[in-house]
Specification:
13 helices; alpha/beta; 19 strands; two-stranded antiparallel ribbon
Length: 545
């Protein structure tokens, strides 16, 4: 279970490279001067009661290597900072929330950064995101939202008792603790430096992306700029839709192997890869891909040296995962995964022993169904039928949309406050559906046709959840956000760079939605070989039905 959880829990804030530093505060800012509970008072936070505050100097800190640290520069060493921890409660709500603020001892750049979490973790599960921001001169803060950060399940806090959701902790996780952290973090920063931050930024992906958009929607004055990657918005819908592939397998009583599903995905990629003008193993135009997996049924494929045959169950499952959740009358419930998404590392995972396979649901989705919708830690989602799944889907929306959905398209207050937001989503995301983010952007634009003056959305072909995959990842997106906020330079594209593969690195620009990337000639690993052009939907993929 924990391995599935990591694909969202390690959805990390963006690596803010190449930061300009307009102001550096070095006078009297060393590791010991001012770093004490006596020098940093409790902030003012309406509705909160503070329990404890500690401020401890940290000298020559080196970031331990973790799964999270893969998203950040290696060898972050020699950090000197004031480590402030503040605990508080909301009287009457039986919560205890912990906020951490790291304050650089030297060379503070005059800015504050809020760092997001992943999965059911309100904040990051390691120090890497904080250390990265700190190394670039930011004062950085995060919150645990009132529950532990490293547990792979929400079972430890979701229910007060059988049948009763811990609504206060859910509200803390969804929104309240995020606003509190911004207030507390900026207040501690001002106390330490005797100067308020000139700019405040949010940096997060997945749950962290949802948190950023929650700040824009409900607390528009807290952040000047928000970077929200692969945002887990439309929570009440998508979180149940994630279980759809597992439901289909349970109803078929058949659990295709990872080998078969990977072969089906490879066939889809082969059919749709060249729609952008170049065959490179990346589907850049999923909107033009009409691949029909049923055409493979009965054909042979190689499974680790063993000749196998595509099954009806395998092709049916792939089609269901790509189509998305549907009601009992086959009407739309939510979007599906893109054709290039890895089905075997996200939502259609199976476990096979001696040739017998069973489903292994994505724990964040199954937890939501059992703990929050059914309010029963013992509920077994494998017992769901099409009818009861339909009921669960609608119950989730009815009960939790107002708390955590984070899909309000009215960003007028954020716009009027002068804020800027960038969202981006990998088109090969294997757990959060990229069309849900595109749909949100379209709904914001429907309310405000001038949306691009403060909100821009970008799509990353070949990128999986938050970073991995074959495609170029927008690792300098945070710098683009800073330039937009502070210099008025709105990004037309986001520069992307892939992880090294066979000694090669792909560099491409990510297009501003709704534009798409087209190959114009030259080295396909070089960004200048592509252009962003308006989409022209309607072309059938070669070799597809």
């Amino acid at each position: 279970m924990y391995s599935e959880y990591k694909s969202m829990a390690y959805c990390l804030p963006q690596n803010p490279l190449l930061q300009s530093r307009p102001v550096q505060y070095t006078d009297a800012m060393n590791t010991t001067v001012g770093c004490s509970s006596a020098a940093i008072p409790y902030p003012s936070l309406y509705g909160a009661q503070f329990v404890n505050l500690t401020a401890v100097p940290v000298i020559n800190y080196t970031v331990p290597s973790t799964q999270e640290s893969l998203s950040y520069p290696n060898n972050i060493t020699g950090l000197n900072f004031c480590n402030v921890s503040i605990s508080y409660t909301h009287p009457g709500q039986n919560d205890l929330i912990n906020v951490r603020i790291w304050l650089p001892s030297n060379d503070w750049n005059g800015r504050f950064m809020g760092v997001g979490g992943g999965g059911y973790s309100t904040g990051p599960t390691s120090d890497s995101p904080l250390a990265n921001g700190l190394s670039l001169g930011y004062s950085v803060a995060t919150t645990d939202g009132g529950h532990e950060l490293v547990s792979p399940t929400a079972a430890t806090w979701a229910l007060n008792s059988p049948g009763n959701v811990n609504t206060y902790l859910l509200q803390d996780f969804a929104s309240v603790a995020l606003k509190d952290m911004a207030v507390i973090g900026k207040a501690a920063t001002e106390s330490f430096y005797q100067k308020a931050p000139a700019y405040s930024y949010w940096n997060g992906c997945s749950t962290g992306g949802r948190q950023g958009l929650m700040m824009a929607q409900r607390y528009p004055d807290e952040y000047d700029g928000i970077l929200a990657g692969a945002p887990a918005i439309n929570w009440a819908s998508f979180i149940v839709a994630e279980y759809w592939p597992q439901l289909i397998m349970n109803l078929m009583k058949s659990y295709p192997s990872a080998c078969e599903l990977n072969a089906i995905t490879a066939a889809a990629v082969a059919a749709c890869d060249a729609l952008d003008g170049v065959a490179d193993g990346i589907i850049s135009r999923p909107d033009l891909c009409y691949f029909e997996p049923g055409s493979l049924t009965g054909q042979s494929f190689d499974c680790e040296g063993v000749l196998s045959t595509f099954s009806n169950a395998g092709t049916t499952l792939a089609q269901a995962a790509w189509t998305g959740a549907r009601s009992t009358n086959n009407s739309f419930l939510w979007y599906g995964l893109s054709y290039g998404a890895n089905l075997t590392t996200g939502l259609a995972v199976t476990t096979c022993t001696n040739g017998t396979c069973t489903g292994r649901p994505f724990s964040i989705s199954s937890d939501w169904i059992s703990l929050f919708v059914q309010k029963n830690a013992s509920f077994d989602p494998t017992t769901l039928t099409r009818s009861t799944y339909n009921d669960v889907f609608h119950a989730s929306k009815q009960q939790f949309t107002s708390i955590i959905d984070t899909a309000d398209p009215d960003l007028s207050s954020f716009r009027d406050a002068g804020g800027k937001v960038i969202t981006w989503h990998g088109l090969s995301d294997n757990v959060i559906f990229p069309e849900g983010t595109a749909d949100y952007f379209k709904r914001v634009k429907a309310m405000d046709p001038d949306v691009e003056s403060y909100y821009r959305h970008f799509r990353a072909p070949g990128v999986e959840h938050c970073r991995s995959g074959l495609g170029p990842y927008p690792k300098t997106a945070f710098e683009s956000l800073v330039q937009w906020v502070e210099k008025g330079i709105a990004p037309e594209v986001l520069a992307g760079e892939s992880l090294p593969l066979n000694g090669s690195v792909i560099q491409r620009n990510l297009c501003m939605y709704p534009q798409d990337l087209f190959y114009t000639g030259g080295d396909p690993n070089v960004a200048s070989s592509f252009r962003c052009l308006s989409s022209k939907a309607g072309t059938t993929a070669p070799g597809s039905a």
